[in-house]
Design the sequence.
């Protein structure tokens, strides 16, 4: 059993993308059947079963519902729940297979209209599902850990309050409305741009997150990357001084080069920032396809882009394991709460 524990410990230290690779390697024969209940029970409650409310370990079976679904009771907080409680499928009337079909649409980059027609759901439901799935993945993405040679650079997106006006009675524009998403009032790195620090390592694992408004700062870089870039990793950046503090804290081997410099040779190895530049280009292209992404959802679209960039996304086992991860994860926001998030999720 101790070997199993070792495997679980190692597994827990893997990044989200590494977990997917891990699964695709070991479990080509695993598929999630229609019997999602037993799949959820097995993965969420067997062994180290925990209460979805208090995370207490004293969970016992507690009879079945009329529809045959197993009920559980927590002996610590005395609340009862079923295997799918607090998962992406709870409080939804659609069957699991519709959700799975929708996830496939997302991997195929279908539009909301195409996905809603294919899955026979409304466009607004399709939008809510999109962000329920991406919110769930964002929790998993937070476990990313970059080792090896890491390239980092920041990119910028215009602030957009799209989608904040309709449903909210207390939202007021923090600035004058634009005619279009692209004509930001002040030129340069004004407070109307969101700075997104991005990093990608030599295995292709990436991590990016909206950081702050306007120009990059040392605090922002440290906040975003301190827990994400492994100590002693090699970090390649342009000449930006904001990386110096992070490099000192994590004892990184910092290699800084002029933005137009292609590679630097050190101890027989070549280092560059082409990989992170290519990442920016892909991300910009992806975001442009939505004709303006509301800043409050920007982080989610970054995660979606990362998901599509993986080499494995077209394989059946990748899909199956991704779906398993999503099904088993705890969700933090239900449908009606999806739009209720800060319109500006970054520091000023
Ligand atoms: Zn409990």
Sequence:
């Amino acid at each position: 059993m101790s070997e199993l524990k070792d495997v679980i410990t190692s597994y827990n230290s893997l990044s989200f993308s590494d977990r997917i690779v891990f699964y695709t390697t070991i479990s080509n024969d695993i598929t999630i059947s229609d019997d999602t209940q037993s799949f959820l029970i097995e993965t969420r409650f067997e062994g180290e079963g925990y209460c979805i409310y208090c995370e207490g370990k004293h969970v016992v079976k507690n009879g079945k519902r009329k529809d045959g679904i197993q009920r559980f009771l927590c002996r610590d907080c005395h609340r009862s729940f079923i295997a799918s409680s607090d998962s992406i499928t709870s409080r939804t009337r659609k069957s699991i297979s519709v959700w799975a079909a929708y996830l496939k649409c997302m991997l195929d980059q279908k539009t909301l209209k195409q996905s809603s027609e294919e899955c026979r759901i409304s466009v607004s439901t399709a939008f809510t599902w999109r962000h329920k799935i991406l919110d769930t993945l964002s929790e998993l993405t937070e476990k990313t850990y970059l080792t090896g040679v890491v390239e980092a650079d920041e990119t910028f997106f215009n602030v957009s309050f799209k989608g904040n006006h309709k449903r909210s009675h207390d939202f007021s524009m923090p600035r004058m409305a634009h005619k279009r998403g692209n004509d930001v009032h002040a030129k340069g790195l004004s407070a109307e741009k969101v700075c997104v620090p991005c990093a990608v390592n030599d295995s292709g694992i990436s991590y990016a997150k909206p950081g702050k408004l306007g120009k990059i700062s040392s605090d922002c870089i440290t906040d975003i990357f301190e827990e994400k870039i492994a100590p002693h990793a090699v970090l390649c950046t342009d000449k930006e001084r904001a990386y110096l503090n992070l490099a000192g804290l994590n004892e990184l081997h910092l290699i800084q080069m002029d933005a137009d410099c292609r590679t630097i040779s050190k101890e027989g190895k070549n280092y560059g920032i082409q990989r992170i530049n290519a990442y920016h280009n892909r991300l910009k292209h992806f975001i442009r396809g939505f004709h303006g992404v509301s800043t409050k959802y920007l982080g989610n679209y970054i995660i979606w882009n990362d998901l599509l960039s993986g080499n494995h996304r077209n394989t059946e086992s990748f899909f199956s394991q991704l779906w398993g991860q999503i099904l088993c994860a705890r969700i933090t926001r239900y449908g009606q709460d999806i739009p209720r998030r800060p319109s500006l999720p970054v520091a000023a």
In short: Residues 51, 53-54, 56, 74, 76-77, 79 surround zinc ion (CB under 6 Å). The first strand starts at residue 59 and ends at 64. The domain at 47-85 is CATH 2.20.25 (N-terminal domain of TfIIb). Residues 27-33 have pLDDT under 50 and may be disordered.
